[in-house]
Design brief:
Length: 665
Amino acid sequence: TYRELCKPSGGDDTSDVQAAWNDISTYHPGGKVFLDGDGGSGPFNCLPLVVPNRINIEGNPSEFTEIHMGQGTTFDLVKMGTMIKRIATGSGNSPTELLTNNPDAAAPYVRNSSNVYSGHNQVYEQFTIKNIWADGNRLAAARRAGIFRFERAWGFSLERFVMTSAYGLSKIMDCNAFLLSKIISTYAPIFMFDNGDWQADTCTLAGGHIQGPALWMHGKGQWQGLATNMLVYNAALNVRTNIVDAGELTGTPLTGSSASNYDGVMRLVSAITGTDGATETAFTITSHKMETEQPVVLMTTGAVPGNALRYCVYWITRVDANTVKLSRTYNHLKTNTFIKCNSAGSGLLFISKGYVSDMLFTGGAQNNQFNAGRCDQSSGSGVLFVGSNNNELNVLVNSAGYLDGGGNTTGLGLDGLFTGGAGVPGIGCYQGEPEEISVGGTPYTSFLTTGENKIGGMQDGAVATSGGTNSTQIVGVDCDAATAAKMPKVTGWSKNHPTANYRPNRIAFDSDFSFAAPRQTAMTAITSTGPTDWQTLSTLTIPQGSIGPSGSLSFKALIGAAAGTNAKYFRVLLGTTVVWGGTSLTITNAQKSFAINGVITNVNAENSQIGLAVGTFSTGSSADLLTAAENTANSLALTLQVAFNGSETCNVKAPAFDATVHKGG
C-alpha cells in the first residue's frame, strides 16, 4: 500500500513516477506514493503524467512560500519540498498539461442545460495530491500548457499544492465534491467549468499577462461552491480595459508589432476569412500561441463580426500557429462545430483570454459563495459577473485598475496593448449574451442575466500605481442598464470618491442605503450678493431607481458659520426642486451652528413626491405639504446651498451632509 521514490534520477523521471502511480492504483487502491525530492536532490523531471484513481500522491512537507517572477528568483535553485518539473524538450512542447486524470474517454459527450453530462457517469476517482510543487517550466516551452486538467472526477483533493511557471490555464471540468486547500498559484491561473459541490480554502491564486483572470468560473453547472480565505490577484498585466455598454475597450490601442505579436491576454486579429454566413470563419492572429479548448471572448473597438456575440464565451480550436476557429459551446468544440460569421465587423478585433479581472464569473455560474478573502492588483476589475447570478461575495476588493506608475506601453509593461483613460469598477455586473444550450440533444437559446449577486465587504475601484498609492478614484460597483433592475443588496463600504461610490445612472438597490458628502473641517469664504444668489456648499448624487415608487429620502446636515452682517438662508434641492429651507426660513446673523433634517417621499410613482412645506422647521407648519415631480428613476443631485440677505462674504462650512435612501415598492 506504500511506495517511495527516494530521489529523482537527474534525467527523465516520467516512467518511474508513472509506474509507481499505476502500481498503487492497480494493485493497492487507496495506497500512497511518496516522492522524496527534498534535501537538494532536484526536481522530478517529467513529461505529462496521468493521475490514476484511488491513489494518494504526497511529497516532502515544506513551508511553501509565494514566488514572484521578475524579482531575480531562479526556480531551480529554490528548494521547497518535492518538485515535479515539466520537461520542455521533444513531446514536452505538446499542449498537454503536466498532470491529467483519465476520464471515461469512450463515453458519449452530451450535456444537459449546457453544463451537466448525460450518457455516462463521472468517474469516482478519489485521488489526493499533497505537498507537491508543480513547475510548468514555461520559459523553455514552445506550447502553452497549464499545470493540470482534471475532468469528470469525483471526490479528489489538492492540498498544499504549489503551481508555478505555466503559460496555459489549469482546468477543472465537470467534477464534483472536490477540495482545494492551501493552493499557491504563481501566474498559473485556474479555469473551473461546470463543477458542483466544491470547496476551496486558504488559497493564493495569481493571474498574469499571458492568461488573464486568476480564477475563472464558467457555466451554469459551475455552482454550489464555497471558498474561504482566498487571495485572488494580479490579473492581466498587459492590458487596461473595461466592459461598458457601448463596447468593451477603453483607452488608445497601440499599433505595430507590439500590438499584433504580443503574447498576452488580448490577441489582435489581423484577418478574418469566411464571412458569408455559410462558411466556417477562420481568424488570423500572428503566432497566437493558443491551444484547442482555450476559452476566450471577443473584444473590439467597434462592432463584432456578424453572427458573433459580445459577452459570450467561445472555445478555441487551433488550426495552425497563426489561425484559430471558434465554437460557441463546449459541446460544439467536441463536435467540430464552428461559428459562421456573415460580416467582418468594424474596428480592431481582439480574441481575449477572458475579461480583465482577478475573479471572473461567466456563462451562468451560480450559487457560489466567497467569504473572507481579497481581490486586488488587477489591470481591470477586481471581480466581474457577466451573465452569472445568485452568487455571494463577501471579500475585500481593492486596487482594481492596477497600473505601472511609469505608464509603460511596450515589452512587458503593465499597460501593454492599451493606454489611456482609466474607468474600471472594483466590481462589475453585466448582462450576458444568449447562449446556445442543448437539452436532450435539442438546441435552444437562453438569455444569461446578471442579478441577485449578493455583494458585501469593501469595494474599492481605486486605480493604484505600482507603488501602491491610489492615483485616481473610480466607481466601487458598476452594472449595465440591463442589469440595474436586478441589482441586489450591496452592503459594506465602498471606498471611493464620496459622490461616486456607485456609478450614477447604473445602479439600483433593493434596500436602505446611506451615503455621505466629503467632510468640511475648515471654513470656506462664501460670497453672495443677495437672497437670490445661491452658492453650493455640498452635493450628493442619488442613484437612479434607488428610491423606488413608494420609497423615501431623508437627509441631514450640520452647518457652522461665522457671525456676519446679514441674515443667512439655507436650502436643499432635489434635482431642481427646493425640498427644504429657502428665503422664508431665516438664520440670524448671530447664529453660528445649527442642523438641518428633512425628508421627502415618492407617492406610488418615481416622479411624484411630497415633503415638508418649504421654509419650515421639522416642528410643524400650517402650510400644505410640498409637492414635486422630480423623476427619481434618473440619477438626481441633492444639493445644499447658502445665500445672504445682502452682499457680503462670510465663512461657512458643512461638516456633515448625509442622506439615506429607504427603498419602497
